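Collaborator request, handled under Task 6.
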Amino acid sequence: QVQLVTSGGGLVQAGGSLRLSCAASGPTLSTKHIGWFRQPPGKEREFVAAIRWMNGSTYYSDSVKDRFTIARDNAKSTVAVYLQMNNLKPEDTAVYSCARATGVNSRADDINGYRHWGQGTQVTVSS
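Structure tokens returned to the collaborator:
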């Protein structure tokens, strides 16, 4: 059973930075993407960023491109991914979750391709 553990959320002022972590345990050999999604208050969950596990290709939503960076921890034998969030804006306020996709044909930004989800972590950006 694959489990994902998310950590690193908090309260920050606009312009500040936060780093989220996602650690996966269990049978993760068939991982295709690890993605980050967020759900703002009163809105649907949306794609933020993803990394293709085999080759490290990264994908970002337009709203976070050039401010957020997704990276994997190659030093660890387990699946560990980070989301560095810089220049945070109030509109980045949301519950952030990491997720794992395994389908060969799954798209990095397609929420339907993600089967395993970590618990959410709250990110609040004050103006």
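The cover message to the collaborator said: "The radius of gyration is 14 Å. The chain has a mean pLDDT of 93. Please let us know whether this matches your experimental observations."
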